[in-house]
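Q: Fold this one first, please.
A: Sequence and structure below.
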Amino acid sequence: MIARTEWADEAGRDLPPEAPASRRLTIEVRGRSLLNTPLTTAVGEWGDAVLLVEQGSTQFSPDSEVWYSYVDPSAEPTESELSEFFSQIMDLNTTEVTVLADGTVTWDEEAVPAKHQARLREELLSRTGAGDPERWADFCREALTDAYSETAPFLQGVSADAFPVPRGLRLDVPLDAIEDHEHGMEWVMESQVSFDGQTWADIYMDEVPAELLAVRPQH
């Protein structure tokens, strides 16, 4: 892409010859159109909407810290910072929900209005498969493989029958999601895991649980 856009380092910036470390772009969510042009061709779908790449928004970074425009070589580079989207996620007010393999769901009763509790429980059971051993195992395997993709990449190669099945998961549920009947569950994030129902490991802060390390290939 750099070659195609004839990227020139007029400002004397030293860019590495290898592939950039990161690339980012802006996605626009728009209703479906009956007629499409090259500028309105969707790159994906989200419910009843389509996803479009905002023209001219693509940037690259040699180190994931300083970002350069693919389209405008003369544009000044920008320092890395969390986008407004991720800043909002980090600032979300959440409540912790515990989901056990047998279908038990608990939370802070004061955080979830009574009128939303039945629906929230139903949506969490549907999302996680709790209460259905096969669906629960599939959900946990996918969630943990993704969460530990950098610290335990070997999990990608562990077969379904050999993958340890957690006794429970704790999830951070944004309070706004409790009110959102359509896309609320898309904002839920798994935060802790327990293989015995008593000891909990923080998925993003603690070391890889021993139960997962035990299935690491020995060769």
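Q: Good. Now the second chain.
A: Here it is, same layout.
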Amino acid sequence: MSVPNEIQPADAVYQKDVYVGFEEQTLGSLVGDLLGNDDVMAALGRAIDPTAAQPDDAAFSATLAEITGKDPADVPSLSDGCLLEAVSDLHVHWDDASDQYHTQWGEQPDIERDPHARIEIVEFDPDSIVELKCQIARHLLCQVRDCYLGMGIAPPEPFRLLGAGHHGAGTGYEHYDFYDRYHDPTAEISTWYEEYTPDDAYELSVPPAAETEP
């Protein structure tokens, strides 16, 4: 996909939709169990550090096997792409001289549901594929951070990191004084809104799956 002539590539946000290969019920249980697993949280920290050794995804695979009821030997590793069902083609998002937003949409896979995530990154030149993977992992964790901040509460500790997450959230941090610059990796943060965070804010309750007629 070519970038429209009226913008420079560095001014565009490049987007790709991601579809995870789990039913919503299983995915909700998976997220809750992973967030409560200290080994998985430690692995997330290593996943966003390009100088760290490649993380061992054994804790993730063990949790996944328990949730799905499969033998651990039958669960593919995270590095094998066990979560990924499909991705869209590339979308290009930009704003013009009058601050009007535009998006040139790429083709979507033939899946009748919304994507679970949208990668939104600006142009950069990674030194290696490891650095690219770490940057995307950090970007998605920053999106989790943005979801909590958008609700006016503090993100859990593993997600209190700085960097670009949701593009729309970053625009808000840039232009509204009541936000710190969470999208800026060099910013000094004065608040994570802990004082507005309920004690049970991080408890995940997944409703039972609806029963169907035989």
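Q: Anything worth noting on the second one?
A: Helices lie at 24-35, 38-47, 58-68, 129-150, 167-175.
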